[in-house]
Amino acid sequence: MAKIVINLTCSTDNTDKATVAMVVANAALVSGQQPIVFLSSEGVHLATQGCAEKIIEPGFAPMKELLGNYIENGGVIWVCTPCFKKRGLAEANLVKNAALVGGASLVEVLSQGAACISY
Fold first, then answer.
1. Rounded-to-integer distance, Cα 3 and Cα 52, Å
2. Which of 23, 31, 36 is nearest to 1 (CA)?
3. Residue 50 DSSP label
4. What is the DSSP letter of 45?
């Protein structure tokens, strides 16, 4: 089982990239890998209640379904703390399985050999 970081820097500002990232995260999860979705920049919005409902990319399952499946199957979501705070978002509004983390957590998992895919 390998750790795979999916670094996502967008949400409603680029629904195509956000959707593809979550498709890949779900594929990694169901194939027995250990994906970590790392949300930074505008991507942090995806970790808040209600954001996923706003993302519907033609040709793909709706983000609400993609994110819901990822969470229900135990997928981990790391949210960049400084990015989250910069945008004035409330920690109480985080979705299930989402945790605020600093850059050191990301560096640690990458230094241990995790692959990284960025969107």
1. 24
2. 31
3. T
4. G
Cβ atoms of residues 7 and 119 within 8 Å = yes
Sign of CA dihedral 108, 114, 117, 119: negative
Domains of the chain (ranges; CATH) run: 3-118 (3.40.1260.10)
Q: What is the pLDDT of residues 52-74, one digit of tens each?
A: 999 999 999 999 999 999 999 99
Rounded to whole angstroms, how far apart are CA atoms 119 and 106? 16
Q: How many CB atoms lie within 10 A of CB 12?
A: 14
pTM above 0.70, yes or no: yes
Residue type for position 41: S
- Positive/negative CA dihedral, 97, 102, 104, 107: positive
Strand partners, 80: 101
